[in-house]
Write a structure and sequence with these properties.
The structure holds two protein chains of two kinds. Chain A has a single domain, classed as Cytochrome c-like domain (Cytochrome Bc1 Complex, Chain D, domain 2). Helix content of chain A is 37%, strand content 0%. Chain A contains six helices and no strands. Chain B folds into two domains: 135 residues, Cytochrome c-like domain (Cytochrome Bc1 Complex, Chain D, domain 2, Orthogonal Bundle); 87 residues, Cytochrome c-like domain (Cytochrome Bc1 Complex, Chain D, domain 2), CATH 1.10.760.10. Chain B is built from eleven helices and seven strands. In chain B, α3 packs across α7, α6 crosses α7 and α8 packs across α11. Chain B is globular, with a radius of gyration of 19 Å. The chains are: A mainly alpha, B mainly alpha. Chains A and B meet through α3 of A and β3 of B.
């Protein structure tokens, strides 16, 4: 019985049911995990080009990172321009704020087309990773 | 006030970009460093010329004692193949579909030389395609003009504007709306496929347009269409129409 439950839990986890959230205006007030994120982990995600992907399009105050993008506004000052709740929605699903943005929705698995096998059913970042990124971006006060 | 109205107008423009005006079209060559441009311009430096040399040798050589070489029917490629590659993909009577240059080479090989088709991205196939492409170098890309290509062309255009993958990007979002800006430090070109097959420095290898399209699909975390898929040929066809009149550069070098 325990084994069955474990199997059931494992398949549930791999299907990655997303945490539900409630946008209010252009923001998501509550942490997706109920916990604050970790600033250091957030920085590592933001600067990782396979994980956060942020620097492909954005630049930011990361002197050690060469080859930053200029498709999108700099991340410098993001923590002054937006509140925590606004940052959360802009990462989770920026297209809710601006339907024409090229910013991908980092926490969404529906309404996508031809997702590669390795990525199916998975958001770009997990809820915990998004909280880490939000926590880090809030420290970028310019 | 005028400034305010101007900003309002700008904001109301759809980000889903319009086509690039003809006067603003630029080859990927224009976005490259001078050193890479020089590598393409000088045949003695261009690594793709090695594939061209092999393709030329294959053109002359019978694949078996029972089969004629390409030159046995087509003669001197510098005359008979002049401008041909500039008009591909083209309509194929036998299959009733659009086929690209490499599919044409393979069809000829299977039908007239009774040889197995070359594998996608194989050295002999890229060599022949590069050799034939060279026979159009300097000539304008010819827009598809066979009305039977219209449905495939439309599907290609639709695919170009269809968002795909976990990151949910369409071709047009980068290559029409954001060309010239930098993606991780590299300028985004306008996606004019005027130099294929290309020698790509990132690959350290020669590759076809289909390989490049599959790369972009993997980049947006989409499941790439398989080599030879109708969708890839439809995209190639749309790209060809989009670049009509631009100069063929085959064999090009790209970063």
């Amino acid at each position: 019985m325990t084994a069955l439950l474990l199997v059931a839990f494992a398949s549930f986890a791999s299907a990655q049911t997303l945490v539900s959230y409630t946008p209010v205006g252009d923001a998501i007030p509550n942490s997706l995990t109920g916990q604050p994120g970790d600033v250091q982990r957030g920085r590592a995600i933001v600067t990782n080009r396979q994980k956060g992907l942020c620097l492909l399009c954005h630049s930011g105050p990361f002197a050690e990172e060469r080859f930053q993008g200029d498709l999108a506004p700099t991340l410098a000052g993001a923590g002054s321009r937006w509140t925590e709740a606004q940052l959360r929605l802009r990462i989770v699903d920026s297209r809710r704020v601006n339907a024409d943005t090229i910013m991908p929705s980092y926490y969404r698995i529906d309404s996508l087309n031809r997702v590669g096998a390795a990525w199916q059913g998975k958001p770009v970042l997990t809820a915990a990773e998004i909280e880490d990124v939000v926590a880090f971006l809030l420290t970028l006060k310019e | 006030m005028i400034r305010f109205i101007a900003i309002l107008l700008l904001l109301s423009l759809p980000a889903a970009a319009a086509d690039i005006p003809a006067s603003e079209r630029r080859s990927g060559y224009d976005f490259m460093s001078p050193a890479t441009q020089e590598m393409q311009r000088d045949d003695a430096l261009n690594p793709a010329m090695l594939w061209v040399a092999e393709g030329e040798a294959q053109w002359q050589e019978a694949p078996s004692s029972a089969a004629k070489p390409c030159a046995g029917c087509h003669g001197d490629a510098t005359a008979s193949m002049r401008g041909v590659a500039a008009g591909y993909p083209a309509f194929d009577e036998r299959t009733g579909k659009a086929i690209d240059l490499q599919q044409r080479i393979n069809a000829c090989r299977v039908t007239h030389q009774q040889q197995p088709a070359f594998a996608a991205e194989s050295r002999p196939l890229l060599g022949l395609a590069a050799y034939l492409g060279l026979q159009s170098r300097g000539l304008p890309v010819q827009a598809p003009d066979d009305p039977r290509l219209a449905p495939a062309l439309q599907r290609g255009e639709k695919l170009f504007h269809t968002a795909m993958g976990q990151l949910n990007f369409s071709c047009t979002q980068c290559h029409d709306a954001n060309w010239g800006k930098r993606l991780a430090g590299s300028p985004i070109p306008q996606a004019h496929a005027t130099g294929y097959p290309i020698y790509r420095l990132e690959w350290q290898d020669m590759g076809s347009l289909q390989r490049r399209l599959r790369n972009c699909m993997t980049g947006v975390r989409a499941e790439p269409f398989p080599y030879g898929a109708d969708e890839l040929v439809q995209l190639e066809l749309y790209l060809n129409s989009r670049s009509a009149g631009m100069t063929v550069e085959t064999p090009a070098v790209r970063p």
